[in-house]
Amino acid sequence: MPNPYHAKICCTTNLDDARLAAEAGADFFGVVVEVDFSPRSLTIEAARSLFDAPPLPAVALVFEMPERRIHRLIQTLKPFAVQFLGDSDRALLKRLKSTFPETQIWQSVHLPQAGGQVELDDLKAGVEAYLQAGVDALLLDTAAIKQGQIKFGGTGLTFDWTLAGTFMQMVPAGFPVWLAGGIDPDNVAAALAAVDPYGIDLCSGVEARSGKKDPAKVKRLMNAIRQASTKRGEKT
């Protein structure tokens, strides 16, 4: 029987929401750290209360953070994983894997919102380079221009899930690939059925307002994921 689908509740800004994710049965929570374009971003210092005694393994999300600052983040917060947004320097990822072998390195791969075009050869080459750099997981998310600024994740917009199916064929069987981008309690079952990823990563789909999670939405999401996991097991 296959493992159940996993869940990461992202863009967490407070300890109460981290505990909510844990109580609902999520596997990870994510914290955006010093990312200028995110309204849910925290400084390293402000994020410490979420990482000191996390109720779940905690993932720190960064974007174009200087290498020395990343070192400080890892040494201060001791996250389970650092998730990189945007197109990351593969040499940097290798150095971090060597310097901090106890910290997982996750890489987001951003695709255009539904209706956009992507060059599959370029996508495959990028994926292979990240795998060679030793990343521990990949995350498929949506990049979109909102209010004149490009945002990598947290857009609340989906991309073409058939493209995600193609992506899944580019990675070794069993390699963790998370699906994000516009997922919510109403469409999560369809997303899982279409892509069959390692797990779901979402932010705005379970919010009451920006930066604050909605307990009812989190519960509905986790119930839907559990039901999808059961159906997946029945098919094998």
Automatic annotation (TrEMBL):
Keywords, ordered alphabetically: Amino-acid biosynthesis, Aromatic amino acid biosynthesis, Isomerase, Tryptophan biosynthesis
Official protein name in the record: N-(5'-phosphoribosyl)anthranilate isomerase
Gene coding for it: trpF_1
Pathway: Amino-acid biosynthesis; L-tryptophan biosynthesis; L-tryptophan from chorismate: step 3/5
Family from the record: Belongs to the TrpF family.
Major enzyme class: isomerase
Record's catalysed reaction(s): N-(5-phospho-beta-D-ribosyl)anthranilate = 1-(2-carboxyphenylamino)-1-deoxy-D-ribulose 5-phosphate
Keyword Zinc-finger belongs to the record: no
Naturally occurring in which organism (per UniProt): Desulfosarcina ovata subsp. sediminis
